[in-house]
Sequence to fold (153 residues):
Amino acid sequence: MPSSLFPVLLALHIALAVSLFLPSVLLPFTLRTSPAGREPGTAVRTLLWLQANGTLIIGVGLALTGIGLVMALGAAVLRQPWLLTALGVYALNLTVAFFIQRPNLRRLFLRSADRADDATWRRRARRQRYVSYAMAGAIGLIGFLMSTKPTLW
Fold:
């Protein structure tokens, strides 16, 4: 691969990696501002569509750009402790996004129209925002590891 394409491939890989988490991190904050019984706005509908339909496409693109980066840098990069740690944090974050955040958000959005027990609904929405804070912190940790490449062991 020409070295002039490396920055483009890296930027695309980062954009795809972040966009895979974007709906799970941002949607809980839209619950706070959406009035009960009102149709969600364009941005919220886009995030919901991206979460429901875009994850496979984004995941495939992320895998392909990751393979391209490994091919450009060499397989030795896969033995770097900072990369292994970042990939572990990313895998943990993906697990939280797909098995905790997505199902709970779906339930909250389905119940947002009636909000029979408003206090319980608000408490659950707040809990999802806390999960989003933790996920955003994990994304920051990944960015720190990728940019500083610290010696871990």
About this structure: The chain has four helices and no strands.
